[in-house]
Amino acid sequence: MATAEKVFSAPRQTILRSNAAQKLLAFAALIVIFVVFSFLSPFFATTENIVGILLATAVNGVLALGVTFVIVTAGIDLSVGTVMTLSAVMTGLTVSLAGWPVPLGILIGVLTGSVAGLINGLIISRMRVPPFIATLGMMMVARGLALVLSTLETGTIKPIYFNDVPLFRQLMMGSVLSPLLAPVAPDFNLPNAVLILFVAALVAAFVLAKTVLGRYTVAIGSNEEATRLSGVGVAGWKTAVYALGGTFSGLAGVMIASRLNSAQPALGVGYELDAIAAVVIGGTSLSGGQGTILGTIIGAFIISTLTNGLRIMNVPQEWQFVVTGLIVILAVYLDILRRRRS
Amino acid sequence: MGDLLLKMAGIEKSFPGVHALNQAQFELRAGEVHALVGENGAGKSTLMKILSGIYSKDAGSVRYQGKEVEISSPRAAQHLGISMIHQELNLMNHLTLAQNVFVGREPRQPLRFMLDEAKINAQTQALFDSMHLRLDPRTLAAELTVAKQQMVEIAKALSFNSQVLIMDEPTAALTESEIEELFRIIRQLRSKGVGIVYISHRLEELKQISDRITVMRDGHYVDTVDAKKVTIDQIIGMMVGRAIYESSPEVPERPDQAVVLAVRGLNRGTAIRDVSFVLKKGEILGFAGLMGAGRTEVARAIFGADPIDSGEIFVKGRRTAIQSPRDAVRHGIGYLSEDRKRYGLAVGLSVEANIALASFEQFVGSLGVVDDSKVRSIASRYVDLLSIKTPGIQQMVRNLSGGNQQKVVIGKWLTADTEILIFDEPTRGIDVGAKSEIYRLLNELAHAGKSIIMISSELPEILRMSHRIVVMCEGRITGELSAAEATQEKIMRLATQRSGMVAVTENSFAAKAKVR
Amino acid sequence: MKNYRIVMVLLGLLLIGSLVSACVAAPAAAPAAEEAAATEAAPAEEAAAAKPYIPVISKGFQHQFWQAVKLGSDQAAADYNVDITFEGPATESEVDKQIEMLEAALAKNPAAICFAALDTQAAIPLLEEANSRGIPVVGFDSGVDSDIPVATAATDNLAAAALAADKMAELIGGAGQIAVLVHDQTSRTGIDRRDGFTNRIAEAYPDIEIVNVDYGAGDHLKSTDLAKAVIQANPDLKGYFGANEGSAIGVLNAVTELGKVGEIVVIGYDSGQQQMDAVRSGAMAGAITQNPIGIGYKCVEAAVKAINGEEVEKVIDTGFFWYDATNMDSEEIAALLYQ
């Protein structure tokens, strides 16, 4: 019995002492931002606007999930934005131009991301190219390929539309939940994209906390050499982490294509920075070893809530960048403070 | 003592420029603690890293449990039951103890890809219980002291059913009571028939814990002796052996002269403890000790590179508050780091730029423009004076040999008009020919009235060069010897003389500090 | 060993690329390839070396508008038998990249240069060099703000946006709240379209209030989320003007997602399939179209004339048009729209 007690009391203790502090802080920040905007504008805390915020978080949130894994290994992935675009274009090509079934097109889109991530991983772990450089290269390669592939239809760079496949847009923008929620909240028209974000987050959280891959992600980020000396095939697992990150980018690609009802080949540059910002605000340390999915999701929500709120307040947009930037710095500084104390 | 468990014979290993192991051998019986000793660089760690699969041997054989084995990776070693606990601890701070113990071979749930957290916690708890360790498997590794982390590493090694356990300097960061705890566990393991290889510099410990002692020197096997029948002096004698380059000390006689630097009661955490000494004009003062004895820390503290907790520094009789290297340079102190490439030189810059680096203000004209011709003339002068072999003063320092790089650093500090030069391992990585040139240069500098502190781990070098020798161990000065009375044996004895009177609280604080 | 790995990875990349193209290109690429072959084959038949070379340096490349400009200049090149290259920086903030392109073009000793400046001042020294070497410069789109160009083929963005303002006023009945979404606050077209629109509203329609002017970088997704927030904050909004293709699509998405189609008058700019479909369905009231193909064609044409010493008009107005569901299929308009 005594051991059982110990087992249950111990994690609570450690959680309070470590990660939870920042997670709580980030969550508190989100609440504060929310409350402040609610007071400042009657249009902020409406059901529709909240759904808008959720929807605006979907793509960046899913990208950030993948980036979380990579950053926990003390790596970085700059290619997520353009890999997302490449995946979107691949889905467009298969579904819209080649007329393949939608599920197959989605699978190909997601797998495109996985393959790009796998290549990132191989370059990093086998060829020993630093992650920053390897993924910077992949960022450009994916961007170029997305543009090239988009010329296949007409010979000029052109978005690929999904007008012939109305089902595709419904995937993200339709709502499987609405019929279920209708009796309780008839207005609450929660798009599938939001649902997918949450399901993806749950999967990611499960992988990070409960699976071998998650364990080695943390172990590698905490002490790569020690992990290697423990007999873990570090190169292989690292590759897997980047492939997983790429898979999330692929999913984000399908999501953005569905939302915009088109694969926009010129999009995606700069999305990686928003994703990294979300991860960092969520308390994941760039030096590796620690980070949580919940934190990342909160971080992504902080960014989109701020963006939305400042728009609603009609604050000049330039200031939005200033505010987001300050929050990123503050989040990292708090992380440093916390670590210095412990 | 049980049956022969392991026999390594004729082991050869070379790294670029170093013949690290030359026909090294070692044997281990079940249920014995076999100590492996030798000076820094004697090859102990290399030999054990070969045994634990981190390095591959160039030649030789390893027989384990009667069979010839090839150990190709740490994993292969673990499978054979050979585990090594490294000097620098190898736990993942962000994982729990149980997760650390089982990293790499986690029990999985029926679905294969999922971890069975409950199972590893239970197994780790059982493991801890069997060692009588009171630790919760679910605590994060970061929250433990070094001593406790070490216990966890041992537990991890045992969880492989290890028959051979290699411990590299396990007591380096432990307090007396923690060492007792460690020894208790070691004895417990020995009684269960585990063979333990124990690498340590602390010779008095060996008598307590080990059954046999193997001595290595310069990559060679020297001898294996019964720990009960050997004296510490005999062990030291075997470790030191004959000096490699035996030459009559070139210590020029110096009459006592004015004290230029006096250090009193210097303290910094546990790295420097109550260090006091004086340095006289025109003197070479040798700092001897084993690695990690605190010599570099003292040098850095005097140079203002690290803050000190307490203590006074007097330069030419005047008390000075040196807060930063900049202050130190102003007071005429120069520090030549042991790691030239990282701290001493900008290897991507030219010889002349490096020589002018520490005293750039001299070369800057009224408009903030660098006076190139002045830089050039001074650089050329030192290149001649120090006979730096370089195609020209524009040559990038990266392209010079180690010895010439060292001379460039010396030139840099001479340009800065330093009176006190602290040389940290001045001949490390320099070939024998260039070494004697550096020695000649040091002597000339001393003759010219510069005062020199020379930190060196090579005893022959210390003996040959120094007028006086200060020996450090674990942050303290354990003795001072004149050139006349110093021998390798005496230095070695002082360098391994641990203080038995250290307060436990202070030490456990040190352990925590190390974790950080 | 290392080399082997690099080769492996490159091979992998290639494999994926070609697989992908092979899988999906089969039905789609055939006509494209033929088309490309047709345009390339014509010049190849003649003595390539003798043809005058005219670099066309645009403000962008990836966006459909620039692709349409490229199409026009390619046509002119074929018609007048000259060699052109068409290039432009990835975003409209990369002034430095564009200057590098201009430098590189000058180094190739061209017969003439077609240039749409991102930043006129930054390009002046190079343009003066071209001038002194007798290389005619033809401006297009936002043109070059100096006397050096022998001609400029451009849309009058100020006037075009003012037309959008007039249409907006007409469609919302001359009173109410409206908002504007622009691609950026620093580029010439962004500034002109914003000012052309807002100035016209301020001058002519005192009962119309512009409640918000925002910038979405022409990014479809960001523009969508941005416009949604603006619509949320202004429930009485009657009209929304998107000043380029990405902005217009963003506004359109926002209105659609919030179920406000029909309540908010959406006016766009340029074309593209999505806008055209929306105009046809009525989700978008109408849009301003420039004549991008004409811009590309006219600037190359003017360059050819300048090379041959012919007289060229200083300002070539390539025109702009309002299109909506009623006229978009007319011959005049349909020719200007690109999918």
Primary descriptors:
heterotrimer, B: 516 residues, alpha/beta, Rossmann fold, 3 domains, 6-stranded mixed beta sheet, elongated, C: 339 residues, 2 domains, 6-stranded parallel beta sheet, 11 helices, 12 strands
Largest interface: A-C, 58 and 57 residues
Sheet with the most strands, sense and barrel status of chain B: 6 strands, mixed
CATH domain topology of the largest domain in chain B: Rossmann fold
Average residue-wise pLDDT of chain C: 84
Mean pLDDT of chain B, rounded to whole units?
A: 83
User: CATH homologous superfamily of the largest domain in chain B?
Assistant: P-loop containing nucleotide triphosphate hydrolases
What does this structure look like?
The complex is a heterotrimer of chains A (342), B (516) and C (339). Chain A is mainly alpha-helical and 342 residues long. Helix content of chain A is 75%, strand content 1%. Chain A has helices at residues 2-17, 19-40, 47-72, 80-97, 102-125, 131-150, 166-173, 178-181, 192-210, 212-222, 224-229, 234-260, 271-281, 293-312, 317-341, and strands at residues 160-161, 262-263. The radius of gyration of chain A is 21 Å and the shape is globular. The two termini of chain A are 31 Å apart. By secondary structure, chain B is of the alpha/beta class. The model of chain B is unreliable at 243-249 and 500-516 (pLDDT under 50). Chain C is 52% helix and 17% strand. Chain C is an alpha/beta fold and 339 residues long. At the A-C interface, helix 3, helix 4, helix 5, helix 6 and helix 12 of A face helix 1, helix 2, strand 7, helix 7 and helix 8 of C.
How do the strands and helices of this protein lay out in sequence?
The complex is a heterotrimer of chains A (342), B (516) and C (339).
Chain A: H1 2-17, H2 19-40, H3 47-72, H4 80-97, H5 102-125, H6 131-150, E1 160-161, H7 166-173, H8 178-181, H9 192-210, H10 212-222, H11 224-229, H12 234-260, E2 262-263, H13 271-281, H14 293-312, H15 317-341
Antiparallel strand pairs in A: 1-2
Chain B: E1 4-15, E2 18-29, E3 33-37, H1 44-51, E4 59-64, E5 67-68, H2 74-80, E6 82-85, H3 97-101, H4 117-130, H5 146-158, E7 164-168, H6 176-191, E8 195-199, H7 203-209, E9 212-217, E10 220-226, H8 232-240, E11 259-268, E12 272-280, E13 284-289, H9 295-302, E14 310-315, E15 318-320, H10 325-330, E16 333-336, H11 340-344, H12 351-356, H13 372-385, H14 402-415, E17 420-424, H15 432-447, E18 451-455, H16 459-465, E19 468-473, E20 476-482, H17 488-495, H18 504-515
Chain C: H1 2-45, E1 53-57, H2 64-80, E2 83-87, H3 95-107, E3 113-115, H4 120-132, E4 137-140, E5 151-154, H5 157-172, E6 176-182, H6 188-204, E7 208-215, H7 220-233, E8 237-242, H8 245-257, E9 265-269, H9 273-281, E10 286-289, H10 292-307, E11 315-317, E12 321-323, H11 331-334
Parallel strand pairs in C: 1-2, 1-3, 3-4, 4-5, 5-11, 6-7, 6-8, 8-9, 9-10
Antiparallel strand pairs in C: 10-12
Helix pairs in contact in C: 2-10, 3-4, 5-6, 7-8
